[in-house]
Design goal:
Elements (H helix, E strand, L loop, with lengths): L1 H4 L11 E8 L5 H11 L3 E2 L11 E4 L2 E4 L10 E6 L3 H11 L9 E4 L4 E4 L5 E5 L11 E10 L3 H10 L5 E6 L2 E8 L3 E8 L10 E6 L3 H9 L3 E6 L2 E8 L6 E11 L29
Parallel strand pairs: 1-4, 5-8, 9-12, 13-16
Antiparallel strand pairs: 1-13, 2-3, 3-4, 5-9, 6-7, 7-8, 10-11, 11-12, 14-15, 15-16
């Protein structure tokens, strides 16, 4: 009871969206994607699913990237990542740089994180584990999207009232940002900007929800379902102001029930520090 009383009681609540499972962006070249996500970032190709050349699932902790082979998709914003060893990450990124020359790949060490750009222009902020990310040692704590000025309040209202996820508005200098809480230590962030938002290109996220019928019913009744219930999940794209119905952001959500067969599937994560020259028996897994 001592630990509970030391925290705000609401800090112990978990909203309806219990986990962000994967981010899906298409890539035109699986070999280049392997160099970047596996060799460079140090993540693990899923050994059991999507083992051909038409798609690749990349494991990082309890989350994944899904990378089907098509023209590249780019998220307007960046993805936050937690890696066990930031220094080792920089060594790996430096090693793959020659092989990724001629692409948009780049990286810089910033104050508190490593900023990385993938070969097709997606941005990542890579952090060391910290209290900010709970007990996450490897994983994807958040995705931050750039949103049009004046939309953050409506986005927050949508997630709070439709998806039943805790949402808050925060100030970031002159900008407003909507923070959507997911499970224990994950977030979706929508950061207002005056920059032009590129046309939506089809990238998507997958989330698990405890209450499946509530969000589904709201979206179905307004004609917003883009893929009806199949395999214990549905999809929608338009984030709307729940009062007016006005579309304020576009992002495909793959919304899964906790009865989905993939829920809490154990993922294989290797230790990228293992090498032929410095092999440690019994330490292949992270």
């Amino acid at each position: 009871m001592t630990q509970v009383m030391a925290e705000s009681m609401t800090d112990l609540d978990v909203g309806n969206v219990v986990s962000l499972e994967h981010v899906n962006v298409t890539v035109p070249d699986q070999t280049v994607a392997t160099l970047f996500y596996v060799t460079g970032l140090g993540f693990t190709r899923d050994p059991y699913m999507m083992t051909g050349v038409e798609n690749m699932w990349i494991n990082l902790g309890e989350q994944q990237f899904h990378l089907p082979t098509r023209a590249p998709q780019v998220i307007p914003g960046h993805v936050g990542l937690v890696v066990p060893d930031r220094t080792a990450l920089q060594t790996r990124l430096e090693a793959v740089q020659p092989q990724l020359s001629g692409t948009r790949f780049s990286w810089t060490a910033e104050d508190g994180y490593v900023s990385v750009t993938c070969p097709w222009g997606n941005y990542f902020h890579c952090y060391a584990p910290s209290v900010r990310f709970g007990d996450m040692l490897l994983g994807m704590p958040y995705v931050e999207f750039r949103a049009s000025r004046g939309t953050a309040a409506s986005i927050a209202a949508f997630y709070e009232q439709v998806m039943r996820a805790p949402a808050a508005l925060e100030r970031d200098g002159p900008d407003t940002m909507a923070r959507i809480s997911i499970g224990r230590d994950q977030w979706l962030l929508f950061h207002e900007t005056d920059e032009a938002i590129p046309p939506y290109d089809g990238h998507h996220i997958a989330v698990y929800v405890a209450n499946f019928t509530g969000p589904y019913t709201f979206l179905r009744d307004r004609g917003l379902i883009t893929e009806d219930v199949r395999n214990r999940q549905f999809r929608f794209q338009d984030i709307v102001d729940p009062r007016t119905g006005e579309r304020v952001f576009v992002l495909e959500h793959e919304v899964r029930s906790l009865h989905h067969r993939m829920y809490h599937r154990p993922l294989v994560n290797r230790d990228p520090a293992q090498t032929l020259g410095a092999y440690a028996r019994g330490r292949d897994a992270l």
